[in-house]
Every structure is written in structure tokens, then in C-alpha cells.
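Input record (one chain):
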Amino acid sequence: MALVNEAKREINAKIVYIGPKGAGKATAIRSIYSRLRPELRSELKTMVSGGNQMLFFDYSYPSTQNNGDYTIRFHLYSIISDGTAPAPWKMLLKGVDGVVFMADSTDGRMFANLESCAQLYDAFAHYGIKAGDIPLKLQCNKRDLPGAIALAALKEELFPELQEEPLGVCALSGEGLLEGLSAVSAAVMRRLGVEAAVDATPCNAVAPAAEAALVEENDQDVQCDKEKSCFRVELSGKPQAGDDGEVVIPLRLAGGACGKEVDFKIKVSVTV
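The corresponding structure, as predicted from the sequence alone:
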């Protein structure tokens, strides 16, 4: 449920990216963050609790007409989890205004998608939310992989009741992510009654309000800065020990002239 801050004259809406482990939710959040104008976004933050890591930031749309001079601010959330426990997701979905379900298009991942879908509906039932009460958008990641599950099959198995067609995206390259964000944010604004802020554009197009907030691919704000080309390597999760004496360490390579991020893993053999 959107919260109104009368002091700041802001309408705060919550959008949660949910999906199975490894579907690319965190990569999508980081990619979207890198494409938003710095003056409109907050700092990208993480909060660790148990074996879960919450990733979140917020951003504002430019001023719109007929919204009572209120700024609309969207808060994007997702969870990086080592397991499939429903409790963290149920807590995160409290008061949600819009949901992006990030399905994994990889062949053989349908069961994981269905499991995450069941968690979503379980959380909805817990909070008394019915299908259609809030905007729900199905985005199917990893469309660039060979043998990807067909979009029609993913929709039929996961959300056959949805009117809109699923959107194919690639979180690593950023393809489709801005269109998906525009679609769900526009639907949230319509639900809040901010009709002047959106246009009846197709789901795969960037809405005019979002177009002002999002950085174009050829905009000078995202051109590579060759003077800031240093890289950094950081942990992207907890190291995992195997039975064969190997330790798998998840890492993230970030920075460079264009500020890109790449997740990878290394294996270290430990002998005593």
C-alpha cells in the first residue's frame, strides 16, 4: 500500500522483484540502477539478515501534472537468498504496490519457477491480496540462452490469468529491463489514480514519464569515463565448502570505464 509523506509531499510506492534463486533478480536491480539518472535515485543498499541479503534503492519520477504537486517515489526491493525459505519473501511483500516476477527461462528450471510462484501466492493469501488486486508483471530472464523455455509456456504454467504477454529480458545486457520497469510503474501509478503521469503505450515501450527519468542508451550520462576505469573485486555471497575439499567463492568484478558488473565463481582446492 502506497504511503503518503505529507511533509515531503511524496507518494511512496513499493515494487518487489521476486523469482527463484539464480533467476537474475539482483543483476536486474543493479542494471536498472545503473541506467537511472543519479539525481533521481538514492544509494543502492544491501542489508544482510541470516542467510539472506536484501537489495534495495528508491528513485523519483520528475514532477507530473494533476497529482497535487506530489512527487512519486518508487522503492525497488529484492532478496538474494541461499535457500527457498518463504518467510523473508513474505515479510518483504508486506505493503507491496507492484510485483515483477522474474522467471528463469533456462531449460529445466520450470519447477524452481513454480516453487517461487507458489511462495508469491502464499504471501498474497497471508495478506488477503487477490489476483488482480495489484499490478503483477511476468518478466522472463535469460532469453539469450539456447533452448530457453518459450514465453507462452512460462505464462501458461505460472500466471495463465494475466492479460498482458510476458516480457523477455536479459539482465546481463539490460535488454528489456527498462521497458519492464516502465510497465509495472505505469500500472502502479494508474492504480494510484495518477493518470496524467502515464500514456497508453504497449508493455514493451517506455512510458513518457519513465522516459524522462531513465537514461537513454546513447545519453552522455552513461558514456564511459576513461579517467575512472579502475576495477574492484568483492564477495557476492558466502563461500561454500564442498565434500571434495574444494571451496567455491562467489565474486563480483565491478567498475571499469562503464561501471559494469560481472558475477563469477572460483574454486579453491584445500589440502591438509
